[in-house]
Amino acid sequence: MNFGSKTFKPRAPDKGSFPLDHFGECKAFKETFMKCLRDNNFDNSKCRLQSKSYLECRMDHQLMAKEPMEKLGFKDMVDAPSSQTNQDCKP
User: Fold this and answer.
1) Contact between residue 59 and residue 65 where contact means Cβ atoms under 8 Å apart
2) DSSP reduced 3-state for 1
3) I need a labelling partner for 64 at 20 to 30 A (CA). Which of 28, 39, 53, 91 fits?
4) Contact indicator for 69, 51 with CB cutoff of 8 Å
5) Is the dihedral of CA 75, 39, 55, 64 positive or negative?
6) H or E segment at 50?
7) pTM for the full model?
8) Helices 48-60/27-39 angle, 10° precision
9) Degrees to nearest 5, angle at CA 69 with 65 and 75
10) How far apart are CA 7 and CA 90, in angstroms?
11) Interior CA angle at 81 toward 28 and 61, to 5°?
């Protein structure tokens, strides 16, 4: 008798696990990011642009789920929508 047994249903983690880049589609971005880290004593705050580019490459090649860059910590680096001015519409 096994009244207390529960069935285990495995599921992938929400974040922290993603497919490997077997075809090297984002290898150049990764190498640029890693070089930046080495050059800056592994201070990742100095390599945010390279990190953003690498993550964008991974999303573009379906190597990770698409996420808004704001949600990944790059809110300050996302292009703000350009405000339209009326310079061309002078009366």
Assistant:
1) yes
2) coil
3) 39
4) no
5) negative
6) helix 48-60
7) 0.67
8) 160
9) 160
10) 71
11) 30
